[in-house]
Design goal:
Order of helices and strands: EHEHEHEEE
Number of strands: 6
Strand order of the largest sheet: 1-2-3-4
GO molecular function, one term: D-serine ammonia-lyase activity
Radius of gyration: 14 Å
Helix content: 25-40%
Distance between the termini: 32 Å
InterPro entries: D-amino_acid_metab_enzyme, PLP-binding_barrel
Structural class: alpha/beta
Strand content: 15-25%
Length: 100
């Protein structure tokens, strides 16, 4: 059984409760959140954390973090990810017409 966390402390709470399949359900804003999530995964064998990407800057932040981790010799795990797509209501997400 998996769970969705809306804050980084919730991720830690779920892991401490032995919930190992977690979706961090807010868009990734940058390296600080990814660093925290990576620490949680590394400290907990079997943990899987999925991330939420809602814009090109969020995607670029994940790519930059992965590249920096690899360059430092601390390659991060493969992140499961959900891509939020705006299908016309313009509330949030990547525009459906954005090139891949």
């Amino acid at each position: 059984v998996g769970a969705i966390a809306s804050t980084l402390p919730e991720v830690r709470l779920l892991i401490s409760a032995k919930v190992l399949d977690i979706t961090y359900g807010v868009p990734i804003g940058g390296g600080a959140a990814l660093s925290h999530l990576l620490s949680a995964v590394r400290e907990t064998p079997g943990a899987m954390i999925r991330i939420f990407i809602d814009s090109e800057p969020s995607l670029r932040a994940v790519e930059a973090f992965a590249a920096a981790s690899a360059a430092a010799g601390t390659a991060c795990p493969v992140w499961g990810a959900f891509l939020k797509i705006d299908v016309g209501y313009h509330r949030a997400g990547v525009d459906v017409t954005t090139p891949a």
